[in-house]
Amino acid sequence: MKIFKISVLLVALSCGVTSNVWAQNKAAKRPNIVIIISDDHAFQAIGAYGNTMKPTPNIDRIAKEGVLFNKGYVTNSICGPSRAVILTGKYSHKNGFKDNENSHFDGSQDSFIKQLKVSGYSTAWIGKWHLESQPQGFDYWQILPGQGHYYNPDFQMMDGTKKRTEGYVSDIVEDVSENWLDNRDKEKPFCLVIGHKATHRTWIPDTQDMGKFDDVTFPLPHNFYDAYKNREAAKVQDMSISETMVMGYDLKVFKDEAAANKEGTISRMNAEQRKKFDDYYLPIAADFKARNLKGKELTEWKFQRYMRDYLSTAVSLDRNIGRTLDYLDKNNLTENTIVIYMSDQGFYLGEHGWFDKRFIYEESFRTPMVMRYPGVVKPGTVSNDLVMNLDIAPTMLDAAGVAIPKDEQGQSFLPLLKDKKAKGRDAIYYHYYENGEHAVSPHFGVRTKRYKLVRFYKRVRSWELYDLQKDPNEMHNLYGQKKYEKITAQMKLELNKLTDQYDDQDAKKILAED
Ligand code: SGN
Ligand code: CA
User: Fold this and answer.
1) pTM of the predicted model, to two decimals?
2) Whose CA is nearest to atom 10 of ligand 1?
3) Strands (E), 7-50
4) CA–CA gap between residue 370 and residue 343 (Å, rounded)
5) Which mean pLDDT values do the consecutive 10-residue runs of the chain (514 residues) have?
6) Rounded Cα–Cα distance for residues 139 and 95 (Å)
7) Residues β-bridged to residue 446
8) In order of start, what are the domains of the chain with their CATH numbers?
9) Mutation test of ligand 1: which of 41, 200, 246, 356 has the most ligand atoms closer than 8 Å to its C-beta?
C-alpha cells in the first residue's frame, strides 16, 4: 500500500501535477483583486452616497454587497498624485509625484503591484494611468496617454505602439479588461486595475446616454453663491462655474462648426457618433443662443448643463462597472474576488460655486470608495472610520497574505472591517502642491473627526479652521477667533505630529517659520 502511494506521488511529480495542485490551492485561498479607479467622480453623484436620482446602480450594488466607506479620503486631491499614492502606499513627498505639472513617476520604486507579482499574482493595469512614465510591475498594461479621449481613444501599448480603438472610452477600457481576464494565466490569482477616464472634464457621455437627465432641474447647492468671506484661497481660485467653465469646451455650445471641429475629442468622432452628438447638442446651443442669458441666469443655465452632462457620463461609466460585476458572476469569480470602486478624488458639483477639486474641503478631499469582499466583509456594512487612498496598497497586501513593507505609510483597513473593536485613525493628513491651472494655492492640513486646520502657503499665505460638526460645508473660517484658541493649539499639535510621522520636511519647514 505504502509503495503504491509513493509511486503515485512520483508519477504525479514527474508530470508536474503536484505543483499545479499546489498553485491552485494557493490561488483558491488568496483572493483575486479588481480595483476600478474612475476620475473626478463625486460621491454626491452616487446613489449609495445619497444621490436621489440613483444614477449608479452598479456602484450601489458593490456597496450593498460589501462596504460603503463614508470617510474615504485622499492625501493630495489630483489625478496623477492620487494614483501614485494608491500604487506605493506613500505620500506624494515620498513617492515623488507631487503634481500633474512637473512630476514624472519613478516606476522603479516599490509598489503593491510589484509585491503581488513577486508573490505569484498576475497583474494588469488597463485604461487611465496618467503617471507619465511607463507602468512597471505589470504582466500586462494598456493605457490611455495622458488624460485620454472619450471617443475613439488611442492606447499606448506595451510594445511601444499606439493603437486607436473605435468606440466610447469606458466601453473599450472594459472590453480590454475582460479580454485580459479571458486570457490570463488561470493558475494564478490576479490583480487587475481598471482605470476609467470618466467622469473627467469635459464630461462627454456615450451617445446612448445623452439627454438622460434633461427632465431634471437640479437644486443649486445652498452655498452656490459663496462670497468666500474670510477665505483668501477660495477667493483667488479659478474653478468656478460662473467664471472658469466655458460655453464651448465644457458645455458644447460652440460658436460654429469650425469651433466644434477644433475640440480634440469631438474632432475624433466618426460620422455616426458626430451625427448623434450634433442631434443632441445643436438644438441645445440654438436654444441657448436665442435666450441671451446674463448674470445669475447664465450661471444657473451653465450649472444645469454641467450636471446633466456629468451625470450622464457617470451613467455610461456605471454601466461598465456593471459589466465587470457580470463578468465575475458569469465566470464564477465573484466569491473569491475583492472588488473596489473608487475615484482618484472627489469633485465639486456646484458647492462653493465650483467644479474641479484640489482643495482640502470635504467635496474634493473625500473620495467615493466601496468594496466587496465576500466572506470577509458583511454585505451592507457602512464604515465611518477615517480611511485613505494611502491604505489601498497595504490593505491589498494584507488580503493577499503578503508582508507590508515597513516604509509604506498607509495601514490596512481590513482589521477595522473584521473586528468591531479595532480602532481607526483619529486624524488624517493632507498636502496639495500644484500651483498652476485653476489657481488653487498649495496647502496642507489635518482633519480630525470634528475639526479641520489648513495652512495655505504659496499663492496665498493663511490659516483656516473649521468645526465640521457645526459647519459641514466649511463656510466659516474660525481661525484667529479667541473662542477657538485652545482648539487651534490642539490642532496645531496634531498637525506637527502628523508632519513628523509622515516625515513631510517641506511642511515642517513652513510650520517652523510660523
Ligand atoms: C486638466 C483639466 C483640469 C483638471 C486637470 C487635472 N483641464 O488639466 O480642469 O483639473 O486636468 O485633472 S482640461 O482643460 O484639460 O480639461 S486630473 O484628473 O488629471 O487630476
Ligand atoms: Ca482626477
Assistant:
1) 0.94
2) 356
3) 32-38
4) 10
5) 40 42 54 98 98 97 98 98 98 97 94 98 98 96 97 98 98 98 98 98 98 98 98 98 98 95 93 98 97 98 98 98 98 98 98 98 98 98 98 98 98 95 96 98 98 98 98 98 98 98 98 94
6) 22
7) 429, 453
8) 22-27+40-204+304-415+426-513 (3.40.720.10), 207-303 (no CATH)
9) 200
